[in-house]
Each structure stands twice: as structure tokens, then as C-alpha cells.
User: Fold this.
Amino acid sequence: MSNDAYLAAYPALAERLPGQDLAWLQQFRQSGLQAFAAHGFPTLRDEEWRYTNLAALSKTQFAPTALQTAADDLLAEYRVADAALLVLVNGHFVPALSDLADLPAGVTVLSLAQALQQQAAKVADYLGKAVAETEHSLVAFNNAWFADGLWLEVAAKQVLSKPLQILHLVTESTALAATRQLVVVNQQAEAEIIETFVGNVDSYFTACVNECFVEQNAGLTWYKLQAEASKAQHFGGTYAKQARDSRFSHHNFAFGSLLARSDVHSDLDIASECSLNGLYLAAQRQHIDNHTRINHLKPHGISREFYKGVLDQKARAVFQGRVVVAEDAQKTDSEMNNRNLLLSSDAEIDTKPQLEIYADDVKCSHGVTVGQLEEKSLFYLQSRGIDEEAARHVLTFAFANEMVDKVENSSLKALLLKQLLARFSGIEF
Amino acid sequence: MLSIKNLHASVGDKPILKGLTLDIAPGEVHAIMGPNGAGKSTLSHVLSGKSGYTVTEGSVTYNGKDLLEMAPEIRAREGVFLAFQYPVEIPGVSNIYLLKAALNAMRKHKGLPEVDAMDFLTLVKDKVKLLQMDEKFLYRAVNEGFSGGEKKRNEILQAAVLEPNLCILDETDSGLDIDALRIVSEGVNSLRAANRSFLMITHYQRLLDYIKPDVVHVLADGRIVKSGGPELALELEEKGYSWVEGQV
Ligand SMILES: Nc1ncnc2c1ncn2[C@@H]1O[C@H](COP(=O)(O)OP(=O)(O)O)[C@@H](O)[C@H]1O
Ligand SMILES: [Mg+2]
Assistant:
């Protein structure tokens, strides 16, 4: 089997993973390992992976690397102003590169390794509770392989005055950066997290799982900027459990990597609100797969989902948006939209919105569009003296910028705009 | 300034313009009237370079150059401006961005440096006032959610900022109430200059009460079937288009 190399390397790695003395954790990891051993990485035969081929993960054996603590230009480039900075290099939290001076009051930040030493019982209460290893074998893989990560807990009623930026950096070729973040936002608390993925080497494998617990009447805003290096393989899943009256809003910017799969799932309790926004830009031979699931479990939940994609050259993207409304989830109000702009006839989008409704008194809608730039818009701009290429860039930028415009954090917005403009040369805004 | 000779144009294999001849001298205002489907918008599109039309015969000379050879953006930079009958909504692109990009494209074409940011703002605000628009329109997406009248006003705002040599107005008056018609007409009149010509397409005579044309043409079935002074418009209004169509 093609995943044998990972399995063969595991015993030696396991000895170095944090939490050796915790029987429950050993069991958790073993169970993940067995699930991964049984299934290997997901394949095209798995329904939720039909369009995404992970063969590259088996061809190269990505492996954990030693700790690296040298500063890197990318840290400065991707740093968001006025936020506490938590840096993970090659999958390990590096306090020396982080900036905790700006840590707002009311939040506990620990590396996951530290948390397993200092408060193992608490970690046990949350680890694996927002996503099960049965979700798919990359989650199982992460359960067994995660080497570090973060524990973030916001105390009840604390509204964080500053965002927390989690910056994942990879600096070693063929590195495996497997991390687990546990984020607990207690009752009536509010937090904003900016998750950034970058790398300064070509090829590596990010395998990141975030579990979020948004407690009663609490709010969590999560921005993800995936700007991985051009040959990187990226898997990043964020799984939220929303208690009643809670708010979870996720903004997913997928710009980088060769192959990326992102999961954003949320389970909604009574009268909770979930908003998922996304923008994927793919060119050349990039493949970007976005998988979202909103589970309305209880009545009066509200969900809004809006993903946009721009695909050029031979790029391929997948959008699978699933909304499940349980029998008990009466008065659910849900909207889902996916809009795609195809700039090349070789680009491809597989978009699959799915509504599964088991309750009878609900308001649910979904819509999908796939199109090209409109001739009449191009002509209008040309008739004002703007050449065709610039007109195409302006219209494409405008299409994508709608999602950047929704970002309230001005420093992050500037960073996103810069990334966007770099793609569409010759326009100034 | 503009010389159209025996222009034939089709969409697919359907001929729409069938031998249209028209000369406009600098500073002149020509009105073109005609029934629906006569080919008025087609003429405006062919002049501004919209794709989808094939010129099968004839020529268009603009300031001594072959207009039909030029890409649409070059025509614009050379001073041809079309105020669209149906202005296009461009979500995500602000009016002010478009105005600035367009103005700078013209300036670059003329070998001038980019417009100074402050000068630009002063200029634009001046023109906004002229058209009695709210400055907020500058920061809204081009034509998005504008009423019919606001869209038409916005077209004239662009003309006022870009200062074209040849201004083609395609039914700029339709959809305007009487106040808006007056404001738009005042905007157009303020643009009249010795070196600026107008080709004003309209369906109704009432626009000509506000903007006095030098020449009125009647376009029917792809040809100019009658030309005359402003009195021709009145005569048309009275007798209806069947009168000229009968003369084809
Ligand atoms: N893209 C097109 N495809 C087919 N027919 C067209 C197209 N554009 C215009 N026409 C036809 O050409 C004729 C003239 O149209 P148009 O120039 O819009 O007329 P006007 O502006 O005078 O009302 C009409 O019969 C119209 O249906
Ligand atoms: Mg028309």
C-alpha cells in the first residue's frame, strides 16, 4: 500500500510526540493511526473526495522536521498589525518568533504540547470533540501525527480587544507540518482569529485541524489566509461546535498551494448564527477544494454562505457546500451561494451545493453560477479608453474584491488586497 | 470631423445599416431620429467599435483617420464618446475609479502625465455639481442600482470629465422625467464647443427643445432618408414616422 512509508515511520515518530505519559492520548492516537492504516489517504472513490486526487501525498514521503527558530521575511510580510502573533514553524509553536506582548486580557494561550503537560484533563475534554476520526482519514491522520499546535481559551464574558494571529510557516522541503488547534470561546466571550499559512520552500505538506467550541452567546470570527508556497499540499480543516445563541463567522481566502483542501464545518445549536465566506483564486495547475458543512441541529438557526472563485489557465476547483437541517431544526433560515468566474476554457469547477432538509418549517435557498467575464461590461470599459487586458483585470479584480471587502480588520484587508492586486497586474486602486 | 460614407453593417447575415452617409463638421450638433429598430443604436455601436457587427461596405473617417480600423479603446482615446442607450452596471468598480482610469488613459494617449489626485477631485466634483448629482454617486459601483435617469446622468458626467471630440448620445433622453431632462440637457449644452461635435440619437422631438441641433436626419431602415433643419423634427412629430417611411 502506498501509505506504508508513513506507517513504517510512525513508531519512531510516536516516541517524540507530546503527551507520552497520557494513556487516553495514546489511545486516541492509536485509534487515529488504525483508521489511517485501514483507509490510507482519501481517494477519488470517497464520495466527498471525488474530485480531489491526493496521490502526491503518497508519492513523496512528507516527514516531520526538527525545530527551526530562525526569523523569516515571510513572518514580517504576513504579519497583521495590532494583533497578538502566534508563530508555528514546521508545525511547532515557536515562542521566540511570536509576539505575546500584544496578547489581550482574558485569553489563555499555550502550545498544545504545553497544554498537555499543564492541563491534560482539559485538553481531553475537547480533543476530538468537534470532529471525529471517522470524518475522513486526513482527520484520523492528524489525530495520530499532530506534533504540536495551540490551546486558545477565552474566558467567559471577555471580549478580546485584539485579534490573535496564528501564522503557520514551513521552512523545510518535504516537511510535514501536522498541527492541532483547540479554540474555546466561553460563554458571552468574543474573539477574532487570523490564521495564515505560508512557506518559503516549494514542496511540503500542511495537515492542520482546528477544533472550535463557541459556547453560549459567544462569538468567534475566523479569517483564514492560505498563501502556501506554489508546490505545497495543504489540508486545513476547521470544525466548530456552536452552542445556543452563538455566532461563528469564517472567511476563507485560498490563494496558494498546488493542491489545497479546506473543510469548514459547523454544528448549530438553538438560535445560533453561522456565516461562511470564501474566495478561491486558482491559476496554472492549482487545485483548490473547499468543503463546507453546516449542520442545523436545533431550531431558529441562521446560516449564510457565500463562496466565490476565479479560475484561470488549467486550474481546477471544487466547491462542496452541504447544509443539513435536522428534523428538530424548525425555523432554520439558510442561504448558500457559490459564484465562479472562469477565465480560461481549460479551467474547471465542480460545484455541488447540497441541501438536506428533514424539518418542514424552514427557509432555505441555494444558488450557483459559473460564468465568464461579460462582453458588454468589457466593451463598456473599453469604450471609456481602457484596453481590453486592463478591462479584464479590473472586472476580475472587482469580482474577487467583493469578498475582501467583507473583511473588517483593516490590516488584514490591506494584506489581502496586496495579494489580489499582485494577481491582476496593471491596475491601481 | 466625422465622415460616414455608404456604410453597410450586419449582425450575422442580417443587414441593418444599408448605405448610410453622414458628414459632421467640428462644432456641429446633428440629431438622428427614427422609428424603433431603424438601426440607430447599431450606428452608435459600429462607430464606437462594439464587436458583433460586420461592416460589409463603406467607410468612416474620423479626423482624417480610418475609424473602423481602431480598437474601441483607441477610438475612445482619440475622443469618441458613446453615451449608451442602456448603460452597463459594473459591480465592484466605483464610478470614481472608472473616471480616473479613463481620464488617465486619454492623457497617456496624448503623452500627458497622470492627472494630479487633487486636480482630479476638483474637476470631478465640479462636473458632479454641473449635473446636480450627489457626490455619493462617485463612490458607488458604476451604474449599479442606479435608476434609469441616474444612469443617463452618469453617462453625461463621464462625457463632461473626458471632454470628447465626438459625443454620441444614444437616446439619452429616454427614461428621463422633465427635470432630469433639463439638467442633462444643460450638461450637454455646457459641453458644446467649437471643436466638439454631437451625434444625438433620439426618438422624440422634445430633447431638441433643449438642445438645438444644426441638422436633423431621419434614419429609417438603415439609411438616412431625410435631412433638414430643426423644423424637420417638428414636422416628424406632427406627421409620425410613417410619413418618412412612406418616402423610402
Ligand atoms: N445583436 C443583434 N442580433 C440580431 N439583431 C439585432 C442585433 N442588434 C440589433 N438587431 C436588430 O437590428 C435592428 C436595429 O436595431 P437597433 O440599432 O437597436 O435599432 P434602434 O436603436 O434604431 O431602435 C433591429 O431590427 C434589431 O432587432
Ligand atoms: Mg436604440
